[in-house]
Design goal:
Blueprint lengths: L7 H16 L5 E5 L5 H5 L7 H17 L5 E5 L2 H8 L1
Parallel strand pairs: 1-2
């Protein structure tokens, strides 16, 4: 919702989704950045602002801490070449 704050309800919802996927004997591939950023990050000029890298690192650490036991594969950026070309 805002920098340094994580919505526990959303994290719980994703944990439920991950659990349902695993119940069906599928592996989890989690993408950390899939072509969207929070509104507060857009307001700070998105990836043009170097501070966003620090926020992304904090976000990534939180996701790894929360979901590491269930995720087999991690993707940092989905199609970074497409995102950077079309967005910037």
């Amino acid at each position: 919702p805002k920098p340094h704050e994580f919505d526990q309800e959303v994290l719980s919802r994703y944990q439920t989704i991950i659990s349902e996927v695993k119940k069906r004997n599928m592996k989890i591939m989690l993408t950390l950045m899939h072509h969207s950023i929070p509104k507060w990050a857009q307001e700070m000029s998105g990836w043009q602002n170097k501070e966003l890298g620090q926020h992304f690192q904090e976000f990534s650490q939180k996701m790894i801490q929360t979901f590491h036991q269930d995720v087999e594969y991690w993707i940092t950026f989905n199609e970074a070449n497409i995102f950077s070309t079309l967005a910037y």
